[in-house]
Write a structure and sequence with these properties.
399 residues; 8-stranded mixed β-sheet; 14 helices; 19% strand
Length: 399
């Protein structure tokens, strides 16, 4: 069974074709600058050199068509025909309260995705465009929507509700949804496997740290809290997002700077975080390098980020009544040695102590806990595409 995983952005499309018998990635790639000048496909077939195809693509349908042509090409393809694609799994950011799991896509699902675009205006519309493009080109192939928000639908109401007038929840569904759910689910399951313990008996804190970052509390196999909220803006400081702040700052900026709500929202989402504090970059690697060279604002940005992750770990340990393991994943979590060390510093009171030598590793699965530490600290590379493929396989098998 071959599952094609599609992840659409506003002008990009990532994909993987995975043979599910042994979960082997046959090919993967990225289409960039869809609808713009200089659009290009980078195709990476298994055991072959990457192929770069420069071709104008005015929309996502043309991008998907080019991807399918690359997959069946006689020279750099990995399958003989499109008939070998059994199912397509789509990453969809927001499923609202409607879906607590992945679903087979039909017209009812598409209408829900459109409804959720009101609370995910940057993410759901390109997801919908990608789905429609695939449905047009592969009308008989079953397709699944795998939601970033679904894993967090197990949160109790006292965790996901905001202390606003209840009517706003009833009228507009304003509540915490959480994101990165596919990643948090994947690495928490992997953590249980690494510890050789039942998933439904563990208290796990997963730290998905990248340009977008979030922390999740996973108790007995279920998400009970997560740092991102109604939108991905809440929670940790990120590459360009502010994370948690006093909401009164919005009114203060509006009156002092004469800014509109839209302009302030742009500042909070695209000009804050690492970029805003450091003035150097939104990339944590640039922040670390600048901090080493003595840049005070970069040092402060690094310390702020680590401090806020540490606070969430402490809060979630309290919320779950303890913690068995901490998991670091995503770009920063998997690769930044000083970030992991700084976050775990002075956490011995919780049973968290890392081995600094074991911590000197990047991008590999590893237990970096000190000998005898009560809480295991793990590095687990995330694989959201594989999680999407697995969910799609289950849904397609039930069709």
């Amino acid at each position: 069974m071959n599952v094609l995983v599609i992840n659409c952005g506003s002008s990009s499309l990532k994909y993987q074709l995975i043979e599910m018998t042994d979960e082997e990635v046959l090919a993967k790639g990225l289409v960039e600058r869809i609808g713009l000048e200089g659009s290009v496909l980078t195709h990476r077939p298994k055991d072959m050199d990457k192929i770069i195809i420069e071709k104008d693509m005015k929309d996502h349908k043309e991008a998907v068509k080019l991807v399918l042509e690359a997959l069946v090409d006689k020279n750099h393809g990995v399958i003989k025909s499109m008939d070998e694609i059994t199912a397509v799994g789509h990453r969809v950011v927001h499923g609202g309260e409607k879906y607590s799991g992945s679903v087979l896509i039909d017209d009812v699902v598409m209408n829900v995705l459109k409804e959720c675009s009101a609370i995910a205006p940057l993410h759901n519309p390109p997801n919908i465009i990608g789905i429609n493009a695939c449905r047009d080109l592969m009308p008989d192939v079953p397709m699944a929507a795998v939601f970033d928000t679904a894993f967090h639908q197990t949160m109790p109401d006292y965790s996901y509700m905001y202390a606003l007038p209840y009517e706003y929840y009833e009228k507009f569904s304003i509540r915490k949804y959480g994101f990165h759910g596919t990643s948090h689910k994947y690495v928490s399951i992997k953590a249980a496997e690494m510890l050789n313990k039942p998933y439904n008996e563990l208290k796990i804190i997963t730290c998905h740290l990248g340009n977008g970052s979030s922390v999740a509390a996973v108790k007995n196999g279920k998400s009970v809290d997560t740092s991102m909220g109604f939108t991905p803006l809440e929670g940790l400081m990120m590459g360009t997002r502010s994370g948690d702040l006093d909401p009164a700052i919005i009114d203060y900026l509006a009156s002092r700077e004469g800014m509109t709500i839209s302009e302030i929202n742009n500042v909070l989402n695209k000009k804050s975080g690492f970029l805003g504090v450091s003035g150097v970059s939104s990339d944590s690697r640039d922040i670390e390098n600048a901090a080493k060279e003595g840049n005070k604002r970069a040092q402060m940005a690094f310390s702020m980020f680590c401090y806020r992750v540490k606070k969430y770990i402490g809060a979630y340990a309290a919320a779950m009544g303890g913690v068995d393991t901490i998991v670091f994943t995503a770009g920063i979590g998997e690769n930044s040695i000083p970030t992991r060390e700084k976050i775990c510093e002075d956490m011995e009171f919780l049973g968290i102590t890392i081995d600094k030598e074991k911590n000197k590793i990047r991008g590999k699965k590893e237990d970096i806990s000190a000998a005898g530490a009560k809480v295991r600290v793990l590095i687990i590379p995330t694989d959201e595409e594989m999680m999407i493929a697995r969910e799609t396989r289950e849904i397609a098998a039930c069709k």
